[in-house]
Amino acid sequence: MAVVIERRYCDAIHPLHAVLLAGGVPLYLGVALCDWAYMASFHIQWSNFASWLIVGGLILTAVTLVFALVDLLRPRRRDQNIAAYFVVLLATWVVGFFNALLHARDAWAVMPGGMILSLVTLLLSIAAVWLAFPTSRMGDPV
Amino acid sequence: MRSAHFVGMVSVAGVLAACGAEPQTPQYGPNPELPAPKRGVLPSMVIAEPAPWGDRVPTVPEGYAIRAIATDLKIPRQTLVLPNGDILVAEGRGGNAPSLKPKDVIAGYIKARGTTSVASGNRLTLLRDADGDGAYELQTVFAENLNAPYGLALVDDTLYVANQDELVKFTYREGQTQAEGPPERVTELPSEINHHWTKALAASADGRFLYVGIGSNSNITERGMTAEVDRAVIWEVDAQTGARRTYATGVRNPTALAVHPESGELWAVVNERDEIGPDLVPDYLTAVQDGGFYGWPYSYWGSNVDDRVRPQDPEKVASAITPDYSLGAHVAALGVDFSVPEMGAQFADGVFVGEHGSWNRADPVGYKVVFVPFTGGRPTGEPIEFVGGFRDNDGTTRGRPVGVTVDPRGALIVADDLANVVWRVTPQP
């Protein structure tokens, strides 16, 4: 007697993947807010905070990229959105990395480029969340 | 964004393969060329690769000889020749600046590879050549338990030592080989953070005043303006009372001071700011004017505004004095002393300058002792290499000169804080 196992697919991304992905947003938001505070006050500590928050964001995004890559490489679980999600997430990390280098400059040399890159990184990280969460990972039934 | 510099400016810690991209124009003298500030994605960094001297010695001009007169020291920085010919060596490493940014952690690790791994001596060592044969057979600890001693000065029978946190004094009797007891405080010195920790020292010609060089607490205010109170200044301290006043301001890192033997003017070598290009900002040699403001942090080389500083201060910029003589950007001048006729005709009138060598430059500079000739009490002409051979073109670095001291009997004493050696250069008869 043949046994047919009906494969079930999860609709949502893995919870750990989700936490890491979403966790990047407040960090990158913090970077942008700190940069704004530095521009407004010239208090260097805001710029120091921004530098460390970027590192935090980059670490989370890097681990998230591994999850996304695994999803990307499992064709039966992917749909058309996963590629776009992966590209946007990768862009978040790359822009964030250049932002980290920019924030390694001394004092006001961070500005205005640092502020601009912080906003771009923030928008990219929000876009990545937007693309990742509705993504259905339904495959064709076997 | 400066995406044009994303490629080509990056070179880290000796992994650099080619470094022909940057201009080679020497930037010496009273009117150095000042290119526009620039900075790539990463700062250009080429770090010394330490190697032992072995049988080699530094190179000196024809007609001069060099020998090591002390070895196995614990980071020698500045030296002082005592009236009887004995030499005191200040040994140590200071600074307690915390890493504020991820960059500080990484850059600190990379830069440490180009310096000695020996622990700070925190002491003064005395060297003696009793029979005058040029070999300093006695090497003994004169005083210990000091806190990163650097500047040294002797006025009559009082020996002044500038620790990284206070100016202290010992009673000195000629011939003494060990201090009689712990030192007495003259005055406290600014030591919080101590990003630039060295406290340079010189005594006025009449011995009434001591001048103390106090470096800035950052490259360019990246530790905040409040960290810069009483920093980037030269203090004038009353030797008797310890009372002090600020003699000059805006001198980023005055690493060595010397008093002109005839005019009595105070001269300084000053290390200028990094990370705005290979040819900015020139380190300089200057006579220090009483009450003068020399630009840091708001401007450099007179009134060239540094845009990295906020808030800016146009009034201060307008009042900034242009230094006398550029030694070239990033050479890291850490020693200066006036010559004497006994050093030989070509090197009789002028100053010797010890150049520790660059890190913030793809094409390294410094790593030598130069002689800047003087005419009529002012520096003129190009610097002449006096002691070289510290660094090879492949990055191998056997030594890094710091303090230079002229022995009035006709010798130049050079402290080398990478090899932990003191060198002595003498004219040959």
From TrEMBL, chain B:
Signal peptide (residue range): 1-17
One Pfam family cited in the UniProt record for this chain: TrAA12
This protein's record includes keyword Nucleotide-binding: no
Pyrroloquinoline quinone-dependent pyranose dehydrogenase beta-propeller domain mapped to chain residues: 59-276, 320-425
Domain of life (superkingdom): Bacteria
Keywords carried by this UniProt record: Signal
The name this protein goes by in its record: Sorbosone dehydrogenase family protein
UniProt source species: Yanghanlia caeni
Source lineage: Bacteria, Pseudomonadati, Pseudomonadota, Betaproteobacteria, Burkholderiales
